[in-house]
Design brief:
Blueprint lengths: L7 E5 L3 H9 L4 E5 L14 H13 L3 E6 L11 H10 L4 E4 L2 H10 L5 E3 L8 H9 L4 E3 L6 H10 L3 E8 L11 H6 L38 E3 L4 H7 L3 E4 L6 H19 L8 H10 L3 E2 L25 E9 L4 E6 L3 E2 L3 E5 L6 E4 L3 E2 L5 E2 L1 E2 L5 E5 L9 E4 L2
Parallel strand pairs: 1-2, 1-9, 2-3, 3-4, 4-5, 5-6, 6-7, 7-9, 8-10
Antiparallel strand pairs: 7-8, 11-12, 11-20, 12-19, 13-18, 14-15, 14-20, 16-17
C-alpha cells in the first residue's frame, strides 16, 4: 500500500453526552457550537464550563475538539467575541471553525497560535481560494458540499492546505448553506444559526398566471442526504485530511451507528483493502430515515437527488436499547430499553469492542426478576440471555 495517512473521522456533537458516544464509537475528533456564534442555535450546545470539560476528556483519550464560530456576523454579534475566542483558546479547544474573515483578525490579535479551520459556510470550492485562506492563517478548509472528485483532486494538488470534506448527512438546498428562505418566511436567519428548514416545507404550486396547480401532494425543494460510503477509498487516496459527518442535532443512536460504520469502512481500507461491504450503505440508509445520494461527487445532481414530496420520510423504531451491563454468572445482558421488542424477536447487538451479531430473545426479565413477554415502556430496565460477552454502551437494534 502507498504511504497514505489515515484520515481523521470527525463527528458532530450537540452536547457532552453525544461527545462521549462519538468518541466511544470511533471518532477521532468532534465539533460543536458554544452557546453563541454557531450555526446550530437549536442544538443543545455547550457552555464554557462544558467545553472545558469536553477538552479535558478528549485530550485524556488522545482526541480533539473543534468549536464552531461560523455565523455571518452582524454588528450586534461582535460584542464579546474577542473575549470568547480568547477563553476558548485558554481552555484547550484544538481549533476554531470560522466563516467570517473578521474572526481571523481577532484570533491573530488575541490568540495567534489558535488553529483555524474555514467552515463550509464560506463555500470554498477552488484551489485559488484555498491558497488565499492559507496565506491568511487558515490551516484547514472545509470544502463546500458542491465539489466533485475532480475538484477535490485539483484543490489538493494545487494548494498547500489541509482539506476536510463532508461525507455524510443532510444537504442544503442553498449553496453551502447560503439561504435566505428561513429569514424571509420566519424571520429566523439561517446564516446566524436559526434555519427553520423552509426547503422541507410542503408548498402549493401555482403556474405563471398564478393559477393553482392541482396535485395530490404538495411540492418541496428538499435535497436528499449525502453519503459517500462507497467512495471513501477514493477520498483517502486523494489525500483528504478529515472526513466530516453532519448532524449535531441527531440522536446518540444515529451518531453511534454512522460513526461506527465509517470507522469500519476506513479501518478496512487500511487493513489490506478488504472488499467493500455494501451492507454499510443499507445500515446508513436505515439510520437516517432519508435517502442517501453521492450528490456532487461524481456528477452534478439531478431530479433523482432531490425530494419533491416528503411523504416517504418515516421515522423508524430500529433502536431497541442500550447495554448497561453484562452478568457473567447468569449470562444475561442488562438493557435500558428504547423501543418495543418481545420474546422470539431476533435483535442485533453492535459496538466498538465486539463483532456485530444477531441474537434471538429467548426470555425477558423485568427489574423484579419476573418473566415478561415484551418490553413496552421507554427506558425500562430488563435482562435477556446471551452467551456472548457484551459491554456497557453496546447498542441493540432491530435485525435487518
Amino acid at each position: 500500500m502507498k504511504n497514505i495517512n489515515k484520515p481523521e473521522l470527525l463527528a458532530p456533537a450537540g452536547n457532552f453526552e453525544k461527545i462521549k458516544w462519538a468518541f466511544l464509537y470511533g471518532a477521532d475528533a468532534v465539533y460543536f457550537g458554544g452557546q453563541n456564534y454557531g450555526l446550530r442555535a437549536n442544538a443543545d450546545n455547550l457552555s464554557i464550563t462544558e467545553i472545558k470539560e469536553a477538552c479535558i476528556y478528549a485530550h485524556s483519550i488522545n482526541k480533539k475538539v473543534y468549536v464552531t464560530v461560523n455565523i455571518v456576523f452582524h454588528n450586534a454579534d461582535i460584542v464579546g467575541l474577542e473575549d470568547y475566542i480568547k477563553e476558548l483558546y485558554l481552555i484547550g479547544v484544538d481549533a476554531l471553525i470560522i466563516s467570517d474573515p473578521l474572526v481571523i483578525d481577532i484570533v491573530k490579535r488575541v490568540a495567534p497560535n489558535f488553529e483555524i479551520h474555514l467552515s463550509t459556510q464560506q463555500s470554498t470550492i477552488d484551489y485559488e481560494s484555498c491558497k488565499f485562506w492559507s496565506n491568511n492563517g487558515v490551516k484547514r478548509v472545509v470544502l463546500g458540499r458542491e465539489v466533485s472528485k475532480k475538484d477535490i483532486k485539483e484543490i489538493i494538488k494545487k494548494s498547500n492546505i489541509e482539506i476536510e470534506t463532508f461525507i455524510h448527512g443532510a444537504m442544503c438546498v442553498g449553496y453551502s448553506g447560503r439561504c435566505m428562505l428561513s429569514n424571509y418566511l420566519t424571520n429566523r436567519d439561517s446564516n446566524r444559526g436559526g434555519c427553520s428548514q423552509i426547503c422541507r416545507w410542503p408548498f402549493v404550486l401555482y403556474d405563471f398566471n398564478k393559477k393553482k396547480i392541482n396535485t395530490k401532494e404538495r411540492f418541496s425543494m428538499a435535497v436528499k442526504d449525502l453519503s459517500l460510503a462507497k467512495h471513501i477509498n477514493e477520498l483517502i487516496e486523494l489525500g483528504v485530511k478529515s472526513f466530516k459527518i453532519e448532524g449535531r442535532m441527531k440522536s446518540i443512536y444515529y451518531i453511534a451507528t454512522v460513526i461506527n460504520t465509517y470507522r469500519n469502512i476506513i479501518d478496512s481500507y487500511f487493513d489490506n483493502k478488504k472488499t467493500y461491504n455494501k451492507r454499510y450503505e443499507y445500515v446508513l440508509q436505515r439510520c437516517s430515515n432519508r435517502e442517501n445520494k453521492v450528490q456532487y461527487f461524481k456528477r452534478k445532481p439531478n431530479k433523482n437527488d432531490q425530494y419533491y414530496t416528503l411523504g416517504n420520510e418515516i421515522s423508524n423504531q430500529d433502536f431497541l436499547g442500550i447495554v448497561l451491563d453484562y452478568d457473567d454468572i447468569n449470562k444475561e445482558i442488562v438493557i435500558e430499553e428504547r423501543n418495543y421488542f418481545l420474546v422470539g424477536d431476533t435483535i442485533t447487538i453492535f459496538g466498538p469492542n465486539i463483532n456485530e451479531f444477531d441474537l434471538v430473545v429467548k426470555y425477558i426479565k423485568n427489574e423484579k426478576n419476573e418473566l415478561i413477554t415484551s418490553v413496552r415502556h421507554a427506558q425500562e430496565i430488563v435482562r435477556i440471555p446471551c452467551d456472548i460477552r457484551v459491554y456497557k454502551d453496546n447498542l441493540i437494534r432491530v435485525k435487518f
